[in-house]
Amino acid sequence: MNEITLKERNYTKAIWSLSIGINLLIGLAYFVPTMTFSDTYDFSYIPKLNATLNGLTFLSLLGALISIKNKKIIFHRNFIFASLSFTGIFLGSYLLYHFTTPSTSFGGTGLIKTTYLIILITQILLAALIVPLALISIARGLNMKIEKHRKIARWVMPIWLYVSLTGVIIYLMISPYY
């Protein structure tokens, strides 16, 4: 008998604690006045870092998608963990920037501003939604609940790809106004 027994873990409390905590922190970053760490420290490099992290997340997710289509499960898992890592680092730097630096307004007008706002609003809403969805999908994968994992991953993957790609697009659109 070569069957490996996997002890299923219950990630529910962690998933909902992280989902609520992360989304509350991001919300607070918009409503709490910016804190001054030091007048001499410049955080202006962070938006470019965040765009890079979003791009790396997007590429890792593509690697995960290609890997699973080719039934390379270990590569798929590793790319997902890379995506999760890039997203986690992004979250930390995003919060640091938004707690310490006043928001930048988009300076475009007309159709370009409408386009920017549509991308921004959909990106914000889907970013909030992707937190629990991605964590649930990952938990199901780790617990080898393959059918349940596949069902949710069919939604998670395109949403997470959209969120990470539009993060780069938003940066490219607003970067002239920093």
What's a quick, concise take on this entry?
With 178 residues, the protein is mainly alpha-helical. The protein has five helices and no strands.
Index terms:
178 residues; mainly alpha; globular
Q: What value does the average pLDDT take? A: 93
Sketch the topology as an H/E string, one letter per element. HHHHH
The quaternary structure here is: single chain
Q: What is the straight-line distance between the termini?
A: 62 Å
Biggest sheet statistics: none
- The radius of gyration is 18 Å
The gross shape turns out to be: globular
Helix fraction by DSSP (H/I, runs of at least 4): over 70%
Question: Can you offer a commentary on this structure?
Answer:
This protein is mainly α and 178 residues long. Helix content is 75%, strand content 0%. The chain is built from 5 helices and no strands. The chain has helices spanning 12-31, 46-69, 73-100, 111-142, 146-174. The longest helix has 32 residues, at 111-142. It is globular. The relative contact order is 0.16. The model has no long low-confidence stretch (mean pLDDT 93).
Which helices and strands occur, and which strands form pairs?
Elements: H1 12-31, H2 46-69, H3 73-100, H4 111-142, H5 146-174
Helix pairs in contact: 1-3, 1-4, 2-3, 2-5, 4-5
